[in-house]
Structure formats: C-alpha cells, structure tokens
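Quick check before the chapter quiz. The format below is the same one you will see on the exam, so make sure you can read both the input and the output lines.
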Amino acid sequence: MPKRIAAFGEVMMRLQVPGYETLAQGDTLKYSFSGTGVNVASALSRYGHAGSLVTRLPDNPLGDAASAYLRKLGIDTARVLRGGKYVGMYFLENGFGVRPSRVTYSNRLESSFNTAPEGTYDFAEIADGVDAVHFCGITLAMNDGVRAHMKSFAEAVKRRGGMVIFDCNYRPSLWGEGGYAKAKPHYEAMLRLADIVMMNEKDAMLTLGMTTARQEREDQLAELIPAVAESYGISAIAGTHRQIHGDNSHSLRGFLYKGERFVFSDRLTFSVYDRIGAGDAFASGIIHGELEGFAPERTVRFAAAAGMLAHTVPGDTPMATEAEILRAMEQSAAGDVER
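Here is the expected output.
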C-alpha cells in the first residue's frame, strides 16, 4: 500500500522574469504555483505515495487556478480549504555567473494560508488519514497563528503513531532583525516532535546556538549533528553540502545520520538550469528512502540524485520519477537521446 504523506504549507505564486533578465529589464512574467509543501507532496506522489497538501487558498479564480495546478502535479487537494483573499507571491530573477538569483516576496503575510484563524483545520481528523506529515521552517517564520497550527498538527500526528518530518530551512529575511533568537524556541519545539529532520551544521550553530571549536565543515558536522539527534530524540538527520563553481555548475554531496553513524553520497557535479526547489527534491528523496526502508547508503544516494535532477528542469517542483532517479544513480554523465 502507498504511504499517505501530507504536507502543511503555503501555496505561492511564482512570477519569473524570462531568461536572465532582471525585473528592471523584463516586460513579461511567467507564473506558476509552488511552495515547499507543494514540491514535497508532488515529488512523493511521483514516487508512488499518496501525497496531499493541507493549506488554504482564496475562494476566487486565482485560488481555482492554484488548485488546478496542484492536481496537475498529482497532489490530492481534498484538504485544501478555501477562505481569505490572497495568494502570496514571489518574483524570481535568474542569476548568471557572479550575479546570484534573487527572490522578492510580495503580499505573503496577508495570504489566505497565513491569515487562517484558529480552528480552521480539523487536525485530529486529518491525522487519522496520514502516515507522515512534512513541515518547513519557512512556514514556521510566518506568524504565531501559523506556528500554533504547525505544532497542533504535529502533535496530532504523533498521538496517532505517525511520522513527523521537519525541514529547518531558515530564511533570515523572513525572521527579521534578531531572527535567530526569535526562531530558536520555535525550532526547538518542532525538533522535539520530529522523527526526520533536514539540517546541517550551520543550522545547528545559527538556529540552535550550538558552538564548536572545529573549523572544517565536515568536522563541525561530525560533532554537532549527533548532539542534535541525541538532544531532541531524532531518528534521522539529513542534509547537503554545496559548492558553487564559476562555470554555472554546482557540486552537491548529501549526508544522512542514522543509527549513530553517517553515510554520504558521492559528490555530484552538474550544470544548473534552475536551482529553486532542489533542496525539496533532496528532502523528498530522503523521505522516500525512509518510508520504503532503503538502506541508509541507498537513501542518501537516491536523495542526492533527486536533488541533482531537480537542477535540470525549470520551476520549483521536482519532476523526476523514481525510475529516472535510479537511472541517474547509475550514470556518471548524461547519455544520448532516449528513443
């Protein structure tokens, strides 16, 4: 039987400037709908699970368009509620060379999801119908009401024996001045509820305030991640280390800490077409491996390959199937045209 995975999060409208133009240069925008929960639920649906989204959209044509887009991605929209007036938006300018990509948010705090009042969702009923639920630190940054929803939902799933997955995904621009101090208690609350966590040593140091005398990233990772797992009772922690090269290529190496040991993927180097959402692809690969009972080595290799492939398609949402990812794990370079 396929596993039932719910993601709790906001649906965003992505407005992208064509090519590598800036907002000041462009005169057209291409829109689509995305969000961490959208990306994870869609990817897991492609892997054969039953992926659903728990969110709220406005009851107007924009909400209709977003809901239709979710269904096209294979996401169950039965738990997508209607209310409020707005969809949060972000504008994307693709970087090139030394100029990084840039995301500018608009109208996010007034979105239907972020203004949902207490009692909007029946978390007890929803939790009865899922095996696991995914949360994101970006959602945690929104406001106290959303944070209360997250914790209530996570607690309901835990009471019913389900799995809680939390991706740290700290965004300084969303927390504002003094963000780390404001974020820490909320991150700690979610970590205590989580079974699987996406984070690296930087999250441990900056978000949780942990310290280390070690200088190299892998040494910091080896010291801090086991301490986080033990302190918060987390069964698996996964993440990536990325290197950005000057020729529009990146290198990515994934890790998974489970059973008191680390396993690593190969370091994958590839050209980048669209970076946004690649972290969600890696997270979805880890979740899939854990749900399917893969060996840790296979799980982290699968996740890294999923992350790599997500860089090769436009849009936030991972599009690769399990078969395509398994094939990429076996290939060291792109092959000829498939016929």
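If your answer matched, good. The chain has twelve helices and 14 strands.
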